[in-house]
Design a protein that fits this description.
The complex is a heterodimer of chains A (156) and B (548).
Chain A lengths: L10 H14 L15 H9 L2 H19 L5 H4 L2 H14 L1 H15 L3 H7 L22 H5 L9
Helix pairs in contact in A: 2-3, 3-5, 3-6, 5-6
Chain B lengths: L1 E2 L9 E4 L3 H12 L4 E4 L17 H4 L8 H4 L8 E4 L31 H5 L9 H15 L24 H14 L4 E2 L38 H7 L3 E3 L3 E7 L5 E7 L5 E5 L3 E3 L2 H11 L25 E7 L15 E3 L15 E6 L4 H6 L12 H8 L3 E8 L8 E9 L5 E6 L4 H21 L3 E5 L36 E3 L14 H18 L8 E2 L4
Parallel strand pairs in B: 1-19, 2-3, 2-10, 3-6, 4-16, 10-18
Antiparallel strand pairs in B: 5-12, 7-8, 8-9, 11-14, 11-17, 12-13, 13-14, 15-16
Helix pairs in contact in B: 1-7, 1-12, 5-12, 6-11
The chains are: A mainly alpha (156), B alpha/beta (548).
Bound molecules: flavin-adenine dinucleotide.
Flavin-adenine dinucleotide binds next to helix 1, strand 7, helix 8 and helix 12 of chain B.
Chain lengths: 156, 548
């Protein structure tokens, strides 16, 4: 039976998901990995609101549990780091259509976190209402382009 | 002036669809005093509700604000069976239609686009010329508000643009240098994005970036903020959340109006003296095929059998250049930097006909970069952070927009199983990329790599065919002089039914190698102009009706 019912994870699945997140986006500088950052809950909640994301989360969690239950007591969490990465690579290549939206969701939630945005130098969060400053167009840059004779194809 | 309720009013003109073309026609006819009703399955989207002001905007782009109706799945969307096409059809259903999502990059067709049979012996010539359409392009520019600058040597001289071009940004300047080094054409894009305030209540672009998610400051010309306020002021009755189920006809096969489901799901009928279809290149053939009757057994106005045939998309390839330094390439509207039309026209030395444009495209927010933008995702695992840092703000894309020639086997038909939320058949798309298109894109990719290298890119990646790129829906009820080879005449009037007009992208005979919407809207205005001039018998005493 699927470990994920209606997109809702069990506590054990949440632990697995957290470990998965740490493998996908590991710690960097003073930031913990995506799992230790506590993003499993948010990923689960956001996935529940969208059919495609929900089924991708379910598929990935299913694939991990099915694959690992066959040859590891304690499941994904009991594996060492290299084996966890290998297990994820297998899932990625065996269900690419479901893994891709799952990874998109993980990345998107991670890059919504204030601490992450600060680290990568994205200062705005939402892009409105502040927008960005861009210099007005300066016509002098057209000096060369204007030299060219019209070259569109004449028709009559 | 008499007052009537919506039920007993017979409209002079019933427009189906309130997007780019429907809005233009509604305005033009109402200016001339026609009594116009428009039925739109979507609703108004208030600019203040656009998600770019929310912290989760990048997630919303993946879910309820996706360009893909199959992902979005709002009640007003209909599903599209896209299993048999390498390009996913994209659209939005609301007042403003797909212009809510568009990036408003607004070039014009070239004169040669109207003469492809005579010049290159492919497809068919149009029954009109670029210069016939020019006044309507100009009128549309004025209504939508165009930023740009005249003098482009790749195109016929244009009237002065309403506003100066948008700023190029550091990324734009970087690529200009590449094109100049190779001596290749470039010119700032015409864009229906305000570089300075223009139009009532419409501010200047503040370069926030993702204007495909809607523009909160109304700098982007979506038709809900351009044509519609004027059309409504003129008395057009725009009824939202009304899904048309079929166009009705009398025993002679003339249109009498349309059946529709109102916002409460009740089946109603809107009577009209004429019907204008503006439901886009997929929605219109779908509706025509749903409108079979004794008089039109193959679907409305389909004696040619061409309704739903000749679907064109514009296949896109995207070549991304990575630069060593940050160009902050998220600053500014994503698709509105500049264009190159160096390779627009047929070159006899190549193994394909017609050509392509380059549209220079920016990146977007951090999650967009991680997800890969136009390319594959940044790898997960140990290398993730370094790989992300190498891309973030340093990527510029060159989109190759290829001309897609009409082919009868590329079709919109009615799916036999899939239905929308009202149990109406969903459209099914069958599309294959032609050899000509593939060759043309490959040539575009090779030249884009050269220009990115010339601009100083340290790494270049190629997406040979953008899957999520079906934003231009064209050709499925095409125009022509011969009723056996086309669905409408040069005025957009159905050959089979003189009180049915089609004004959306369906009527395009060929697609050019540019974004098509100014051409779609100019044609729509031309059709409206024809109705005003030649079909005054459709016009009745003014009445006053209420919009919803
Ligand atoms: C993400 C994106 C980016 C784009 N960028 C550009 C760009 O930069 N430049 C450019 O030129 N073009 C661009 N386009 C394309 C442009 O938006 C379309 O060409 C244009 O909107 C087509 O106009 P239309 O009137 O044919 O249809 P639409 O604008 O799609 O309007 C059709 C309307 O009809 C309604 N409708 C359909 N069926 C029914 C029914 N049965 N009953 C009632 N209502 C119905 C729909 O709800 C919709 O509102 C883009 C499109 C997308 C999706």
């Amino acid at each position: 039976m699927s470990p994920v019912e209606g997109g809702r994870l069990t506590d054990a699945d949440r632990t697995t998901l957290s470990t998965v997140l740490d493998r996908l986006i590991p710690a960097v500088d003073d930031l913990p990995g995506a799992g230790k950052m506590g993003l499993a809950r948010e990923i689960e909640t956001r996935a529940r609101r969208n059919r495609r994301l929900r089924s991708s989360l379910t598929a990935v969690m299913d694939a991990l549990s099915l694959d690992l239950s066959a040859h590891a007591a304690g499941g994904f969490n009991a594996l060492d780091t290299d084996a966890q990465i290998e297990a994820l690579e297998i899932v990625e290549s065996s269900i690419p259509d479901q893994f891709a939206p799952f990874l998109q969701l993980v990345y998107t939630i991670y890059y919504m976190q204030d601490a992450v945005l600060k680290r990568v130098g994205w200062t705005t969060g939402a892009v409105q209402p502040a927008g960005f400053d861009v210099e007005p167009f300066d016509e002098t840059i057209l000096a060369n382009a204007r030299q060219r004779e019209p070259f569109w194809r004449k028709t009559e | 002036m008499s007052q009537t309720s919506q039920e007993d009013q017979i409209a002079d003109v019933l427009i189906i669809g309130a997007g780019a073309s429907g809005a233009a026609v509604a305005w033009k006819l109402s200016e001339a005093g026609f009594n116009v009703v428009c039925l739109e399955q979507g609703r108004w989207v208030r600019p203040e509700n656009y998600v770019t002001g929310d912290a989760d905007w990048e997630l919303r782009a993946l879910t309820d604000w996706s360009f893909d109706p199959n992902v979005r799945q709002r009640p007003e969307d209909y599903p599209v069976n896209g299993a048999n096409t390498p390009i996913t059809p994209l659209m939005f259903n609301a007042v403003g239609g797909s212009t809510i999502h568009w990036t408003a990059h607004t070039p014009r067709f070239h004169p040669s686009d109207f003469r492809v049979k005579s010049l290159d012996d492919v497809a068919a010539d149009w029954p009109l010329t670029y210069f016939d359409l020019e006044p309507f392009y100009d009128l549309n520019d004025e209504m939508m508000g165009c930023s740009g600058i005249s003098g482009d040597p790749a195109n016929p001289t244009r009237s002065p643009r309403q506003m100066p071009p948008l700023g190029l940004g550091e990324d734009g300047k970087k690529l200009v240098a590449g094109f100049e080094k190779l001596g290749w054409h470039w010119w700032p894009s015409d864009s229906y994005v305000n570089s300075v305030p223009y139009g009532e209540g419409r501010g200047a672009c503040n370069y926030c970036g993702p204007n495909g998610l809607g523009c909160k400051v109304k700098a982007k010309g979506s038709t809900d903020v351009t044509y519609w306020p004027h059309a409504i002021e003129n008395g057009v009755a725009l009824r939202t959340r009304c899904r048309v189920t079929r166009v009705t006809v009398d025993e002679d096969g003339k249109a009498t109006g349309a059946d529709y489901l109102d916002r409460n799901g009740r089946l109603r009928h809107q009577a009209a003296k004429s019907v204008v279809l503006a439901a886009n290149g997929i929605g219109t053939p779908r509706l025509m095929l749903m409108s079979k009757s004794d008089a039109h057994p193959e679907g409305l106005a389909n004696s040619s059998g061409l309704v739903g045939k000749n679907l064109m998309f514009h296949p896109y390839a995207v070549v991304m250049g990575l630069f060593p330094e940050s160009l902050e390439s998220w600053k500014g509207p994503q698709g509105n930097i500049f264009m190159s039309q160096e390779f627009y026209e047929t070159d006899q030395s190549k193994d394909f006909v017609r050509g392509y444009s380059y549209q220079i495209v920016r990146s977007s927010g951090p999650a967009w970069h991680a997800r890969g933008g136009f390319d594959g995702p940044v790898p997960w695992g140990e290398n993730h952070h370094d790989a992300f840092a190498n891309r973030f703000g340093k990527a510029i894309g060159i989109a190759v927009i290829g001309e897609d020639l009409p082919e009868e086997h590329n079709t919109v038909s009615l799916d036999e199983q899939l239905v929308d939320g009202s149990d109406l058949p969903a459209p099914k798309i069958d599309y294959t990329l032609s050899t000509n298109s593939r060759r043309l894109l490959d040539d575009g990719i090779a030249n884009a790599q050269k220009v990115l290298k010339a601009a100083g890119a340290i790494d270049v990646s190629v997406n040979p065919l953008l899957k999520a790129g079906g934003w231009h829906l064209m050709g499925t009820a095409r125009m022509g002089t011969n009723p056996a080879e086309s669905v409408v005449n040069e005025w957009g009037q159905a050959h089979d039914i003189d009180n049915v007009f089609i004004v959306d992208g369906s009527v395009l005979i060929t697609g050019g190698a540019v974004n098509p919407t100014p051409t779609i809207q100019a044609l729509a205005l031309r059709t409206a102009d024809y109705i005003v001039r030649e079909r005054s018998e459709l016009k009745s005493e003014p009445t006053q009706v209420v919009s919803e």
